[in-house]
């Protein structure tokens, strides 16, 4: 009876350990993901500015959509200058300027609070610090570099974003790729082509001279 009782308890112990194993692994994976993201944030925090060239890919297999374009962004604190699809957006820390050369128009506005909740250029390298839970994901070898992916899930259950995959170069602690998937299955894929920190940027990188554009015939549209 004593032996049977011991065997019974051992079976329960083994079953409990078996059930706990995924939780322990999840906890370890989450800790690794947190540590890696913290290292990325710490590294980015040491830079005065960052200049990035990237590709931006919109993919929806269901609708057979696959669109790709290239762009560049300079970031310094909250300020940024983004060039993409023939347009330029400049946030000087106060106002947002959208420059459309084809239309000879500049729109000046306050930063939309709803837009500010999304992955804006100024938050590209730190957006994951708030509003997400994350877990360890796959690792890939890309052009001689080890890229570790962390999967992010929005805490807000009503968020349009279903999840994101953030690919990080484990040696440089720089972001290499961001794959954002929405509830409809559409993916927005940003791949960093070049990452240049602490550049000598022109003094007017984050400024827009409206008078100069008006002299060129631009229409200034103010939304504030």
CATH top-level class: Mainly Beta
Reported for the largest beta sheet, the result is:
12 strands, mixed
The CATH architecture can be given as Clam
* Structural class by sheet pairing and helices: alpha+beta
Shape designation: globular
Radius of gyration over C-alpha positions, nearest whole angstrom? 23 Å
Question: Alpha-carbon distance between the termini?
Answer: 82 Å
Tell me the β content: 35-45%
Reading the helices and strands in chain order gives HEEEEEEHEEEEEHE
* Number of H- or I-type helical stretches: 3
In which range does the helix fraction lie?
10-25%
Q: How are strands sequenced across the largest beta sheet?
A: 7-8-9-10-11-1-2-3-4-5-6-12
Uncertain spans, ≥5 residues at pLDDT below 50?
Answer: 13-27
The total domain count is: 1
Per CATH, what is the topology? outer membrane lipoprotein receptor (LolB), chain A
Q: CATH H-level name... which superfamily?
A: Lipoprotein localisation LolA/LolB/LppX
Mean pLDDT: 83
- What is the count of β-strands? 12
Layout of secondary structure:
Blueprint: H1 2-44, E1 50-60, E2 65-76, E3 79-84, E4 87-91, E5 96-100, E6 105-109, H2 113-116, E7 132-142, E8 145-154, E9 161-169, E10 174-182, E11 187-197, H3 210-215, E12 219-222
Write a structural description.
This protein is of the alpha+beta class and about 220 residues long. The protein has a single domain, classed as Lipoprotein localisation LolA/LolB/LppX (outer membrane lipoprotein receptor (LolB), chain A, Clam). Helix content is about 25%, strand content about 45%. It is built from 3 helices and 12 strands, in the order αββββββαβββββαβ. The chain has a 12-stranded mixed beta sheet. The radius of gyration is 23 Å and the shape is globular. The N and C termini lie far apart (about 80 Å). Mean pLDDT is about 85; it is low at about 15-25.
